[in-house]
Amino acid sequence: MSGPWRCGRCGPVAQPAGSAWRDPRCPRCEGVIAREADEDAATFACPGCRDALPLDAAACERCGTRFAATRCEGCDARVGAGEARCGGCGRMAAATPAVEPMCPACGVALEGRDLGDARVQAYNFRMCLSDDPANRVPFAKPVGYDVRHYELLARYFAAGWGADLFAKFDRLCVRSKTDTNNHGAISTDFIGMNHSWPTASYTDREVLFQAHVLWQQGLHWFLANDPRVPQQCRDHYAQWGLASDEFPTTNHWPHQLYIREARRMVADYVISERDCRGLVVAADPVALGSYNMDSHNCRRFVRDGRVWNEGDVQVPPTAPYGISLRSIIPPRGQVVNLTVPVCCACSHIAYGSLRMEPVFMALGQAAATAACQALDAGAALQDLPYTPLRERLLADGQVLTWKP
């Protein structure tokens, strides 16, 4: 591959003559990872600077670590059978005597259970809105607005919906502002329009990003202005707008799309629904997860003349559960000095529970501690003994087991 190499500690370095992609060394600090700059200018760190590795999914791909971006547990044989919520919740597999139903991503027969697929849960923008007239930017009609995109929502209102339109306008400490999220069958989630995101190029992702912007900006305009929205709802919605003191460089629109799920590493331990339900317990926990097994809808389809959303799951775990060290490092035999605390090894439904910021913070702490101990020992992460890591994490205040 062409282009400059970078070390997370030393910056740009000359490309070593004849070096392989998998294991070059930084000529200044002897760091094992000295990668090319990615197309988004991500820096791949040498082991002396683990916190310079912000894009662990890109690192997985560039280092040859296997990843998945599907709803099918069969896409990783280590997970095995027993996930009740792995595939399409609204679509049952229909086996015939001649042909078994197959997961389109991996070809594993699912024996009459819901089919898996390559879809991921919907994305949206979490909005900071304001109803303070002095701090409110009215919703604008976006360039490219097409009212036909909201025909289904108009019919939904005509059928009598609307009472809980504002259910997720969660007010912040500054009471005139909200954290507004998706709510209801037709809302800010752009259902079904993100399936190519996990493996798309950065150019294609920009197209998807702008499509989400247009959908959501158009939705706000529709709700505040279209005569098919009930008058009471329309008048109330028009009292809201973008907060003028937020996101000034992007016209008060949040600059980050809510990527709930994309690529996930496949490792020697894959967190699954069974971990969340307490049916299996990891022997080497480095953090705890506790949130609902939470998936937003993944697709919208027509059946028997009606429109259906499919993929929504909201099921609490039985108790906080341990997250294995092996789920945040690549499998044995792959890259030896990479930690993956965010895009870690999870099934689709388990990642719906694990994907919370406090969990990422705890996994980041565990990943950094593991990296330091591996450096001190001169060992591959896969050879790192668990007991010293556990002792250090506990000494630093990490919670590894749950005691009711």
How would you explain this protein's 3D organization?
The structure is a single chain. This protein has 404 residues and is α+β, with helices and mostly antiparallel strands. It folds into three domains: 1-54, no CATH class; 68-109 and 261-395, no CATH class; 129-250, no CATH class. It has eight helices and 15 strands. The strands form seven sheets. It has a three-stranded antiparallel beta sheet, with no helix packed on it. A two-stranded antiparallel ribbon has the order 1-2. The protein has a two-stranded antiparallel sheet with strand order 3-9. Strand 12 and strand 13 (306-310) form a beta hairpin. Helix 3 (202-225) crosses helix 4 (231-238). The radius of gyration is 23 Å and the shape is elongated. Residues 15-26, 30-55, 73-81 and 89-114 have low confidence and may be disordered.
Number of helices: 8
What radius of gyration results from the CA coordinates?
23 Å
Number of strands: 15
Strand order of the largest sheet: 4-8-5
Topology (SSEs and partners):
Layout: E1 5-7, E2 11-13, H1 56-62, E3 67-68, E4 129-130, E5 136-138, H2 151-158, E6 169-171, E7 178-180, H3 202-225, H4 231-238, E8 241-243, E9 264-265, H5 273-276, E10 285-289, E11 293-295, E12 299-303, E13 306-310, E14 313-315, E15 321-324, H6 348-354, H7 357-377, H8 386-395
Antiparallel strand pairs: 1-2, 3-9, 4-8, 5-8, 6-7, 10-15, 11-14, 12-13
Helix pairs in contact: 3-4
